[in-house]
Amino acid sequence: MNSITVKAYAKINLGLDVLRKRSDGYHDVCMIMQSLGLHDTITINKSTLPDISIKTNLSYLPIDKGNLVYKAAALFLETISVKDGLFIQLDKKIPVAAGLAGGSSDAAATLKGLNELYQAGLSQDELKKLGVKLGADVPYCIMLGTALSEGIGEVLTPLAPIPECSILLVKPDISVSTKYVYENLRLAGEIVHPDIPKMKTALTKGNLITLADNMDNILQTVTVKDYPIITNIKNKMIELGALISLMSGSGPTVFGIYQDPLIAQKAFDYFKNHQSYGKQVFLTKPYWQPS
Predict the structure, then answer these.
(1) Which of 51, 233, 265, 286 is the most buried (most CB within 10 A)?
(2) Active site amino acids
(3) For 217-233, how does the pLDDT look when each residue is reduced to its tens digit (9 = 90+)?
């Protein structure tokens, strides 16, 4: 085998709570993660040239060591003591710097693809240990599905899958710094936290409405003050029939969960026709990792 094509799936945070800031500068979190059908496509080819070469459909993406795909490939080859060259084609569909773990998912898919391409036989746990060296979300993006994420994001527990639904994504035309969001997060005072235990119970029972009723993202307490467009999108999604609308991760992408696919389609059409909210609009479904 000289080539392999893999998919890198986007994720949203159904619930995102921050428990404390750690002495190492990271934060302990408690999140429920969900992967989506929206994905990037990565094709990896063994190359006769000695280096790792990347080509992408987005001209502004780095194609050197600044790209997580490059870092993941280099780390994997070093781990299995192989000095081959690689040519990697990265077709981006997941919005960049959007709170959807696009870069982390690309890195995870690269590790998984190379593991298969070289028939290296690394277990999922071994891949996760490699992945955390690249970023806190990478181990989850290796596992996929519905999961509880703790620690800095690397302690993962599979959960019952989210009930079938449609998920609308709108990325406003702004940039939000993850570092800025965490530096300005205040955990004291009257802050609404997601009820993670109730969310886990709702997932176990397959109750989408109860799940939605208890979802929240504590990082919104920072972003909505500085970026009112996030609140505007959330309110419009609710007006258009979403059970819940939240920002994903540190933003700025906003998602809405819809029980009725026809209502979701109408909401998608609205945002596609009113791009003052954001030009990147997607209608997708949850992705359940095949067993």
Answers:
(1) 233
(2) 11, 137
(3) 999 989 988 899 999 99
